[in-house]
């Protein structure tokens, strides 16, 4: 009884798994003769279903095909985007030839984490193989970057195949079948094309690195970095070459290296784009946007260890999709609106990359079908971009050199202007020095000390001292508008007018009136302030006239306050008919007189006007000699210059009656 029951169960199991033609429902066998010496696309003959959780045993898979609803690919290469489901496919191959044949079933898409192959023969024999990114490369039967599985078909034999796939990346399953010799030809051609692509990219990378060392333009080093990360390393991962060439026994490394390379590739796009299109100069606003956007892939790269592979891979796909459109619009704007010629190469180069990249991303996301174009568009676009960008970088160097030549020419012109200006300043300095007294007059009973401190090489102040007879001296101090050569010329004009005046003017008021008549209309609507004094040492008198100039100060050792003397009078050059009234003051032994320009007030400025501070300072030092007072002022000037250059010229004349 037990033997009968065992026999019945074996028959049922044998029938369910091996003999039932409905093991792969809704499909028709593919005749070996239909291959016709080439690789054959199985998308017309695939039946599939998806499941979660995954199925691992053939009995469960066949039971699912028989029990649950299935789909047909109907000539469209299966493509499901980024999904966490496992997909099982089945198809049937019939050897309708009268001789033995070995066929290879393979999947061209290399980013599948797990691929299970089952072959179910009519005899009931089952063969299987498991491979994928998460398995060592030795699990693969052939030295091929994709996934392949070989079986021997006897004459007139029919074999049912089951293929299960699962991945944390995008799900694309281009299932193909070919006789062994045709598959070997396909692999040879595929290897040749991959070698051709990486050969172009590798040569261009080394070439641009060499050019960088020649010209030291940072755009080249950013381009080399971009090529190395995106066109070489990331493509190695995309094309499944890391396990085939470098890490055959490190599936975990192959799996985990993909997303970091993805985001490093995205990060490298930003410095390349910014420098290649000169965004900082051509469009500061877009430059700021690029800087802000670059934070996203940088932060994503840092978060890779903390978030699932699938989530970060989706993030990379979405960001690269948006970045592609943004870069295309920006490059068009810079090239054709801002008219920066090198950006045209960037635009067209990235146009091909973007078309290829978008086709790849949309294929990964499940929006585009899998075909020859979508499978190879990114590599083709990258190869074209490499060539165009090389031309673009050359054009950029040409443009940058022209700009540098213009800058250098402008700098040389400015240099010559500065040299000429320096010569003018030296000439103006000599001219101004010639207007100032070379030797001070000497009178018994009078000590004179003068100081002239221009704010720049040539100042706008003027002073003069002239002897009248044996007992009189005439002094003039003035503040001429401006600095430099114009101020020196105006000072020379003032000197001439002053010397002409001294021939007939014997009063300070007359001196100012005569100077005003000579200069009004000749100063191009500019004005000057001046103060004139006559000191009569015999009669001990001081006569003062003023033309809008700061007051003079008179004091002695017994003074309780500083006497401020400033007669009324309009600026010189304001009008032709101007009278300058005089004021007369008695002088005594020990009296000190200070004439100055308003630049001296800045030395004592402490929040408010420095005049009050100066008056207080003079009052505290009223008993000191003229030499001591001058030394104190000179010390103030040196201390102030340590804080920064003076804003105005400083001129002073000190008298002491002895």
TrEMBL record:
Pfam families given in the database record: 7TMR-DISM_7TM, 7TMR-DISMED2, SpoIIE
Domain PPM-type phosphatase span(s) in chain numbering: 443-657
Domain of life: Bacteria
Segments passing through the bilayer: 195-213, 220-241, 261-279, 286-306, 318-336, 345-365, 377-394
Keyword Membrane on entry: yes
InterPro entries xref list: 7TMR_DISM_rcpt_extracell_dom1 (IPR011623), 7TMR_DISM_rcpt_extracell_dom2 (IPR011622), Bact_Sigma-Reg (IPR052016), PPM-type-like_dom_sf (IPR036457), PPM-type_phosphatase-like_dom (IPR001932)
Entry-linked Gene3D superfamilies: 2.60.40.2380, PPM-type phosphatase domain
Keyword terms: Hydrolase, Membrane, Signal, Transmembrane, Transmembrane helix
Alphabetized GO MF terms: phosphatase activity
Signal peptide residue numbers: 1-19
Protein name: Serine/threonine protein phosphatase
Annotated source species: Leptospira bandrabouensis
Lineage, uppermost ranks: Bacteria, Pseudomonadati, Spirochaetota, Spirochaetia, Leptospirales
């Amino acid at each position: 009884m037990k033997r009968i029951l065992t026999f019945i169960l074996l028959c049922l199991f044998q029938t369910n798994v091996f003999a039932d033609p409905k093991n792969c429902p809704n499909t028709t066998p593919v005749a070996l003769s239909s291959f016709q010496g080439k690789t054959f696309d199985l998308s017309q003959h695939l039946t599939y279903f998806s499941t979660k959780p995954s199925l691992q045993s053939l009995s469960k898979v066949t039971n699912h095909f028989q029990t649950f609803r299935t789909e047909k690919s109907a000539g469209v290469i299966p493509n499901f985007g980024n999904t966490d489901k496992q997909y099982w496919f089945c198809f049937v191959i019939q050897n309708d030839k009268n001789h033995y044949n070995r066929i290879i079933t393979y999947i061209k898409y290399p980013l599948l984490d797990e691929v299970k192959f089952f072959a179910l023969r009519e005899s009931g024999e089952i063969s299987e193989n498991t491979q994928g990114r998460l398995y060592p490369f030795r699990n693969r039967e052939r030295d091929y970057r994709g996934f392949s599985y070989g079986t021997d078909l006897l004459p007139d034999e029919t074999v049912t195949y089951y293929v299960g796939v699962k991945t944390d990346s995008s799900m694309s399953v281009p299932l193909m079948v070919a006789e062994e010799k045709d598959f070997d030809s396909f692999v040879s051609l595929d290897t040749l094309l991959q070698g051709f692509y990486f050969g172009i990219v590798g040569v261009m990378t080394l070439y641009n690195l060499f050019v960088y060392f020649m010209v030291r333009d940072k755009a080249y080093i950013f381009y080399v970095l971009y090529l190395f990360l995106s066109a070489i390393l990331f493509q190695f991962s995309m094309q499944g070459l890391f396990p085939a060439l470098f890490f055959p026994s490190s599936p975990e490394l192959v799996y985990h290296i993909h997303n970091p390379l993805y985001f490093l590739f995205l990060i490298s796009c930003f410095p390349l784009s910014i420098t290649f299109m000169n965004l900082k100069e051509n469009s500061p606003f877009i430059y700021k946007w690029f800087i802000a956007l670059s934070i996203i892939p940088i932060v994503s790269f840092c978060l890779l260890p903390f978030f699932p592979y699938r989530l970060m891979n989706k993030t990379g796909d979405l960001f690269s999709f948006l970045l592609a459109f943004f870069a295309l619009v920006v490059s068009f704007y810079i090239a054709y609106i801002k008219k920066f010629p090198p950006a045209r190469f960037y635009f067209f180069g990235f146009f091909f990359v973007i078309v290829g990249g978008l086709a790849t991303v949309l294929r990964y996301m499940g929006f585009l079908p899998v075909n020859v174009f979508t499978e190879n568009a990114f590599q083709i676009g990258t190869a074209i971009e490499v060539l165009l960008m090389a031309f673009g970088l050359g054009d950029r160097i040409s443009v940058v050199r022209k700009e540098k030549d213009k800058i250098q020419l402008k700098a040389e012109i400015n240099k010559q202007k500065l040299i000429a200006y320096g010569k003018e300043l030296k000439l103006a300095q000599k001219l101004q020095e010639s207007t100032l007294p070379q030797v001070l007059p000497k009178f018994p009973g009078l000590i004179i000390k003068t100081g002239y401190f221009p704010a720049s090489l040539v100042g706008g102040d003027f002073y003069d001292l002239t002897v009248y007879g044996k007992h009189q001296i005439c002094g003039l101090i003035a503040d001429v508008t401006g600095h430099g050569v114009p101020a020196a010329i105006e000072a020379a004009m003032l000197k001439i007018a002053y010397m002409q005046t001294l021939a007939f003017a014997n009063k300070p008021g007359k001196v100012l009136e005569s100077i005003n008549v000579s200069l009004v209309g000749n100063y191009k609507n500019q004005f000057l302030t001046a103060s004139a004094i006559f000191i009569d040492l015999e009669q001990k008198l001081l006569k003062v006239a003023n033309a809008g100039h700061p007051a003079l100060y008179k004091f002695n050792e017994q003074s309780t306050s500083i006497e401020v003397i400033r007669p009324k009078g309009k600026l010189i050059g304001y009008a032709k008919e101007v009278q300058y009234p005089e004021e007369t003051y008695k002088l005594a032994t020990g009296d000190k007189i200070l004439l100055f320009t308003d630049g001296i007030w800045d030395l004592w400025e402490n929040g408010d006007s420095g005049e009050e501070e100066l008056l207080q300072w003079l009052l505290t030092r009223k008993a000191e000699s003229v030499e001591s007072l001058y030394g104190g002022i000179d010390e103030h000037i040196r201390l102030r210059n340590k804080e920064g250059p003076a804003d105005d010229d400083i001129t002073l004349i000190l008298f002491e009656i002895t």
